[in-house]
Amino acid sequence: MIRKLLFSVTAWCIALPVVACIVLAAVWGRPLGWTLMGFVIAALIAAVVVAVHHAEVIALRVGEPFGTLVLALAVTVIEVSLIVSLMLSGGETASALARDTVFATVMIVCNGVVGLCLLMGALRHRVLAFRVEGTNPALSVLATLTILTLVLPAFTSTTPGPTLSTAQLAFVGVVSLTLYGVFIFVQTVRHRSYFLPVNVKTEGAQMVPPTVAVTMTSLGLLLVCLVAVVGLAKVLAPSIESAVVAASAPHAVVGIAIALMVLLPETLAAVRTAMLNRMQISFNLALGSALATIGLTIPVVAATSILLGLKLDLGLPPKEMVMLLLTLMISAMTLSGGRSTVLQGAVHLVLFFVFLFLAIVP
Q1: Residue 121 sits in which domain range?
Q2: Mean pLDDT of each 10-residue bin along the chain, 362 residues long
Q3: Which residue ranges does UniProt annotate as crossing the membrane (predicted)?
């Protein structure tokens, strides 16, 4: 059945990346009016959705937990492209963009995505089971990276404000990349069984993997989609910031908009997996995405900041620190038992809506 599904969507999977590239070529170097902006946004969203679809096709071929890793890396490449594009075009006003986007990603994943997965899955299956030996290590790495990159810079004294010196920034980038690499080694090699579904006989577990030809085609189209996303993000960057300024919204809303847009396809995949009672795969998708965002985004933006001499604010304000620490504490409680119900999902979703409300009404 899955093989028929893959071949039935081949036409639009090929057409949409081509259309996105055509839109990119048409608007490159031109000022965007409302009509052109609509086309660019539609093409960007289409390219993101198709990119994640092709990553999912590749995931079916390579198996778990490699499949969720492919999805997380694809989403992170897209997110890094958007952040770097806005950093380069925003000047001084973009100094906090990477921090806001990474923070927004962690809050959206740990509260919005996890909460929605727990709620939807528990409504159908009442009690959801997952592997503590897989979720707890992921959360421990996530907590370490978020505190080191988003909280500690606000308390260092070498440089004023929520910034790090060049040496500190390079060190944090290396530490983030190293710790993320160790986690990937544990997830895919050393203790791979910790990240497999608890019940492999649930619906959808016996999906037929695509052929090598289909997988290689998806790999090529995935690269085309990522090129289109990078270019369209570069074109759209000035318009996003102008819209935020015109609406008199806090600048942090830009980071939230980026994270919400990029994480939408992965959110849908995680919720669909949770409703199939494969909660461990949902956690692999969600937590893996948050880990990849910090473990890969921070080193990239740190290198960009050092090489180009751009100011980079990393330390969170006090209100955001409180929300982050509360999220990590609640996540630790949720992931420590190996079983969850609708109550945990409701708690995480409440935190998610509090985060959105306070971002707009600080």
Answers
A1: 2-360
A2: 44 82 84 80 83 76 70 73 72 76 91 94 90 90 94 91 91 93 89 77 55 81 80 74 74 77 76 87 86 87 87 91 95 90 94 92 82
A3: 35-54, 66-89, 101-123, 135-155, 167-186, 207-231, 243-264, 285-309, 345-361
Strand, helix or coil for residue 136: helix
CATH number at residue 329: 1.20.1420.30
Distances (CA, A) of 164 to 144, 170, 330: 17, 9, 29
**Residue 319 main-chain phi, psi, to 5 deg:** -60, -45
Structure tokens at 278: 């494969």
Q: How far from 249 is each of 55, 152, 242, 257, CA to CA, in Å?
A: 34, 27, 11, 12
Our count of domains for the chain comes to 1
Within 10 angstroms of residue 88's Cβ, the number of other Cβ atoms is 14
Q: Other CB atoms closer than 10 Å to residue 312's CB: what's the count? A: 22
Note the pTM of the prediction, 2 decimals.
Answer: 0.81
- β-partners of residue 339 are 129
Distance CA 327, CA 344 (A): 12
